[in-house]
Amino acid sequence: MKSAPFIAVEGPIGAGKTTLATMLSQELNLPLVKEIVEENPFLASFYQDIDEWSFQLEMFFLCNRFKQLEDTGAHYVQQHSPVISDYHIYKNMIFAERTLKGSKRDKYRQIYHLLTDDLPKPNLVLYIEAELDTLMYRINKRGRSFEQDMDPAYMEQLIADYKTGMAYLADSPNPPIIIKVDAEALDFVEHPEHFRQIVNQVKEYIT
């Protein structure tokens, strides 16, 4: 890897992105950028009425992530210092393309590109793949109140959207290296040897 690693951990809701990113940050002694989730004031309303609240929700996430990654670029990427994040900015489009419609989607696309086209992008992505039952179990286990009415059909579609989104990143200009983490085979929380496998894969690209 020619430049300092900018690592992102991605996957659908409940995949374990923040958990894995935190574990890797500690193991590799890298600064961690964590997305703002629970602070979003539109989350509870969104899960009750997706069509009504999706634009407000997605704009809140986009603006906050833009600010975080703008700072990340100034503090780490431009200084050629490695850093890890528990999201890739493209996740905004993965969600928005599913939840927004018509003129709101068109407006969002324009704003997204205006804000993000010149942001630093990860050059290494760990993509956690998990099946619906695993995601629903983890969502219920972590007990966030606003996620308790999560629609399995929405989650099923999100799994498919993530696969499409990762394929898009792989074919984009200057694509990142994408490491797939099979959450059905690798329990990186309960089994240290599974986590060690992931660490060893990451080290192949950053050392």
TrEMBL record:
Annotated signal peptide: none
Domain of life: Bacteria
Gene Ontology annotations for the cellular component aspect, listed alphabetically: cytoplasm
Keyword Glycosyltransferase attached: no
EC number assigned by the record: 2.7.1.113
GO molecular function: ATP binding; deoxyguanosine kinase activity
Pfam families referenced in this protein's UniProt entry, alphabetically: dNK
InterPro entries: DCK/DGK, Deoxyribonucleoside_kinase, DNK_dom, P-loop_NTPase
Protein's name according to its UniProt entry: Deoxyguanosine kinase
Organism for this UniProt entry: Paenibacillus amylolyticus
Organism classification: Bacteria, Bacillati, Bacillota, Bacilli, Bacillales
